[in-house]
Design brief:
Blueprint (H helix, E strand, L loop, with lengths): L1 E7 L3 E8 L10 E9 L6 H19 L3 E6 L2 E2 L6 E3 L12 H9 L3 E5 H11 L7 E6 L3 E6 L9 E3 L28 H8 L5 H5 L4 H22 L3 E5 L10 H6 L3 H6 E3 L6 H12 L6
Parallel strand pairs: 1-4, 4-7, 8-11, 11-12
Antiparallel strand pairs: 1-2, 2-3, 5-6, 8-9, 9-10
Helix pairs in contact: 3-9
The structure holds zinc ion (ZN).
The site of zinc ion has 5 residues, from loops.
Amino acid sequence: MKIACLDVGGTTIKSAVVTVENPEDLNSYALGAFSFVPTEAQKGFDRIRANIHASVSALIEKHGCDRIAVATAGTVDWDSGKVTYATDALPGFTGYDFCKDLKETFSLPSTVINDATAAAIAEHYCGNPDGRDVVLTLGTGLGSALVKPGVLNADCVEDLHLGHIILHENGFVCKCGNRGCAEQYVSASALKRDSSQNDISLVFTEGKYAKVKEDFFDNMRAVVEYAIEKYTPDDVVIGGGVVEIKNLWWDDFVSKCGKCAQTSLRPAKLANKAGVLGAAYSAMRGIFKSQ
Ligand SMILES: [Zn+2]
């Protein structure tokens, strides 16, 4: 089985062909031809759609794929693969019947799910499939999901909105309208703001940013401990761009956490491949009403 996989974001469309030997074991999924093109969102819906179609066509022509699996930004109805809401990052996507469009254009079984859901599913099933995982994604914002064991359907992944728990009363204004939300302190954007550096690795390597680093650790620890207390996960998985430089900070951070957090924390493994792999795994194992 070969799957043409896409991960559609506001900046890039990532694509890959995923070859499946054992559908049940995500660790056996082989990812090839990974590449990305600009989404060109500023050029509007028709251009985005054309770029998506071109990416899928290229994979099918070159690799002879059997099905299509997509992870996309925006809120997606699990059963139909229709985008029910998308921000301005993907103009024209609100109401876009994405899955139907793929099926009609390429005449292949297709699935479309949300990108954060796909990434959380991938990290869960390549780590501890029988456990309960809280997955935190530190990028521009702070994403969070709870993945529960059992049948893979819309109910097994819950968006926790931990990025918007209030960490600091009267803190920084958040895009949600509140002040002091966690993602204003626990994200790549926060590190850039507080260090005035675009290269966040400097925060962890240069002494003059020691305070920025310690504050970041304190805030991240608060989010992790909140998640552990409220959701009692087996593992707390931390992913996103900040984890791609984990060699600079992970051990230091974990050593500052309480014992409970220390035993449950693990770094995400799949980096920017999590979206396409989660889409592939969901296509093979997910329960959808229509494919
Ligand atoms: Zn907020």
